[in-house]
Specification:
The complex is a heterodimer of chains A (about 140) and B (about 575). By secondary structure, chain A is α+β, with helices and mostly antiparallel strands. Chain A has four helices and three strands. Chain A has helices at about 10-20, 90-100, 110-120, 120-135; strands at about 25-30, 35-40, 55-60. Chain A starts with 7 loop residues before the first helix and ends with a helix. The model of chain A has no long low-confidence stretch (mean pLDDT about 90). Classes of the chains: A alpha+beta (about 140), B mainly alpha (about 575).
Chain lengths: ~140, ~575
């Protein structure tokens, strides 16, 4: 049902995501709902998240592209007030990937981790590596 | 700021002293119902009142939608002319600088580049690529170039996507006034011209409405009238004195805090009072004064009847003695039975309960004091509502009837409307004097006494006017034929109206000046005593107020020890309180 009247734009974006995936990013629509995407982002090389596979769920609301795609709790301006309909799923996912390369401890989801990052970055990076190995090793 | 107004008011008062004194003649004679004099002074008054109201009218203007659009258009045109820019750009600039024409000019000529960047005005128009067909940046479809549009930046989007983009922005609220090109790397502003071409009618109207609202809401000198459903705005001359404004919808409010008009009370006092009226603080006081907490679960318990054996409500069910708050298990015959507690009596002898009892007592007193002022405040509020209803009734029904019975054209019956308007206004002032009284410090006995005297007189004067406007009017409404006494009634009511108006004007000024004439520094500060004299000398039939102003020599006065009233040296007892001079 949700797949009838799927805007041409979503179809085009999906086709492009599948045919020319961005490096380190895969996004594939769910079989029974074309607005629902399973996303995997590889941890960027030379980041503490290297070697990790990060799974995300992305949903395109009815108003898309006038409204931003829905992702989990990620502090990213383009998912909020800086959304523009000229942005795409691809640009959003690339932004998230970039966020893994350069975390922003000034706008954190977890205050504790941000504090740790700011006071002792080396130790925080070690923790990130450890957690990547434990929880995001793709198993 | 405050002090600026104070001094301004004070100097106004000085300069108008003569007016007030001339009005005082009426104050004195008002009660005498001396027709000739009243009629005469009434004319005199109308003149001076004209000056007063004109003076007050000048500091604000009521605007309707047409006025607002006109003013907005004028400002836009001015900026557009001075900057040689389009109307749309001028509008965007003005909105960015909160509709301050001078700020736009200043910033623009100081650093045009920065202003352009901040507002999103590009130096020159970029055309869309000159090809027959173009892809839309939103729907990714290819459209003929003629079916695409772009802002000054040349980023092409199809009409349908523009419609959706603008529609979403307008739905999200007034932020749509700062809309930019959909391209995330571009900051070109989208102005009203594009909205008008590309949006659906409903969104165009909403946008235009937001633009209108912005002109009032983002402007330092304008505000909407806060009355529900009222669509007028007030353009206020900042720094011009009294904040009281009266909207064309008949709602009077304070421009500064947008609460209802509240002279002579300050905005901060009104805020405190309103908070107090609505806040839980009074509930807490009541609980403190009238209940004790259960010794086990700490819930407050009010004991309204029965013996001292209290059982807390489930689930607590704790049984205790109301007096000593000890467990009931230790009570019974040996502690004095169900209605006494000798443990409590013994402990009380030793002063163990003094502190909590004292606190309870204080809470009770403070609650009673507040209740006293609140009740009177609320009563005057209700009386005002009633007077408003009466006024409406007179305007819509009685006036016409009266006009027929008494064979008077309705235009000649305006004095009745004026009397009722005065009643409404006085009720409002009187109401706020109770908030004033509540916050007048307890220890300033002289001020409190003087204040209560002024307030009492105000109440009495207002009652007289209200009585005349309501009851005496009834006689002429029920008459079969025109009554010749109607002319007397006119003179009396018009006289009472101006007498009361003057009294209340003086009262407001006296209270606004903080009753500064009263206090320990009275003697040295006596040059300011005009206000209290204005009001109080109505009780001095033998004294000519005119001569007292002309002879500004204060050595001719002595100050009553009891009430601090300034008496002419010829008096042997105080005119105010009849205390003898020593």
């Amino acid at each position: 049902m949700a797949n009838t009247n799927l805007p041409r734009r979503i179809i085009k974006e999906t086709q492009r995501l599948l045919s020319e995936p961005a490096p380190g990013i895969s996004a594939s629509p769910s079989e029974d709902n074309m607005r629902y995407f399973n996303v995997m982002i590889l941890g960027p090389t030379q980041s503490p998240f290297e070697g990790g596979v990060f799974k995300l769920e992305l949903f395109l609301p009815e108003e898309y592209p006038m409204a931003a795609p829905k992702l989990g709790r990620i502090c990213l301006d383009i998912l909020k007030d800086k959304w523009s309909p000229a942005l795409q799923i691809r640009t959003v996912l690339l932004s998230i990937q970039a966020l893994l390369s350069a975390p922003n401890p000034d706008d954190p989801l977890s205050d504790n981790i941000a504090k740790h990052w700011k006071t002792n970055e080396a130790e925080a990076v070690e923790t990130a590596k450890e957690w990547t190995r434990l929880y995001a090793s793709g198993a | 700021m405050e002090s600026d107004y104070d001094t301004q008011d004070a100097s106004d008062m000085e300069s108008m002293e003569d007016d007030f004194y001339s009005e005082e003649t009426v104050v004195r004679d008002g009660g005498d119902e001396d027709e000739g004099k009243c009629g005469f002074s009434d004319n005199e008054l109308d003149d001076s009142d004209g000056i007063v109201s004109e003076r007050l009218q000048q500091n604000y203007t009521v605007l309707d939608e047409t006025d607002i659009r006109q003013l907005q258009e004028d400002d836009i045109r001015r900026v557009s002319t001075v900057l040689s820019t389009s109307r749309v750009n001028a509008c965007l600039l003005l909105r960015h600088f909160n509709w301050s024409v001078s700020k736009v000019h200043e910033e623009w000529f100081a650093d045009e580049e920065t202003v352009r960047r901040a507002v999103g005005l590009l130096g020159k128009q970029v055309e869309m690529p000159n090809v027959a067909e173009l892809p839309c940046g939103i729907c990714f479809e290819v459209h003929p170039r003629t079916a695409m549009s772009s802002a000054a930046c040349g980023h092409p989007f199809c009409e349908s996507c523009w419609r959706g983009y603008i529609g979403t922005a307008v739905t999200n609220g007034p932020g749509c006034l700062m809309l930019r090109c959909p391209d995330p790397s571009c900051s070109a502003a989208i102005g009203q011209d594009m909205i008008d071409i590309l949006a659906i009618d409903e969104d165009k109207q909403k946008y235009s409405h937001y633009l209108l609202r912005s002109y009032i809401e983002n402007n330092r000198k304008t505000k909407w009238c806060p009355a529900p459903g009222c669509e007028f705005a007030i353009d206020f001359v900042i720094g011009s004195g009294s904040y009281d404004v009266s909207c064309n919808c008949s709602h009077s409010f304070c421009w500064n805090c947008t609460e209802e008009a509240h002279r002579p009370v300050e905005c901060s006092t009104v805020a405190k009072w309103i908070l107090k009226n609505s806040a839980e603080s009074e509930n807490m006081n009541w609980i403190l004064a009238n209940s004790k907490p259960c010794p086990k679960c700490k819930r407050p318990i009010e004991k309204n009847q029965g013996c001292m054996h209290i059982t807390c409500t489930p689930p607590c069910k704790y049984e205790f003695c109301w007096l000593c708050l000890g467990s009931w298990i230790e009570h019974g015959e040996r502690t004095g039975g169900f209605y006494a507690c000798n443990r409590y009596e013994a402990a009380k002898e030793e002063g163990m309960y003094d502190e909590s009892e004292r606190r309870r007592e204080m809470a009770k007193n403070s609650l009673e004091r507040y209740t006293h002022y609140y009740e009177r405040w609320a009563t005057n509020q209700r009386s005002r509502q009633k007077a408003l209803a009466q006024l409406h009734n007179i305007q819509t029904q009685k006036l016409e009837k009266l006009s027929k019975i008494q064979c008077q054209p309705e235009s000649q019956l305006k004095f009745i409307i004026e009397a009722m308007l005065q009643v409404v206004e006085c009720r409002r002032v009187l109401k706020w004097t109770y908030a004033y009284g509540y916050y007048l410090p307890e220890h300033e006995h002289a001020k409190r006494q003087f204040f209560e005297y002024l307030q009492g007189e105000a109440e009495a004067g207002l009652e007289r006017l209200h009585q005349c406007a309501e009851k005496e009017l009834q006689v002429y409404l029920e008459a079969e034929v025109p009554m010749k006494e109607f002319a007397d009634f006119r003179i009396k009511l018009a006289g009472l109206t101006s007498v009361t108006r003057n009294y209340f004007q003086n009262l407001v000024q006296a209270l606004e000046s903080g009753l500064e004439d009263v206090g320990p520094n009275r003697q040295t500060n006596s040059s300011n005593s005009s206000t209290s004299k204005n009001i109080s000398s109505k009780n001095s039939p033998g004294n000519s107020p005119r001569s007292s102003t002309t002879t500004n020599n204060l050595d001719n006065y002595w100050y009553c020890e009891r009430c601090t009233y300034a008496n002419p040296s010829s008096n042997r007892a105080c005119e105010m309180c009849e205390h003898r001079r020593h």
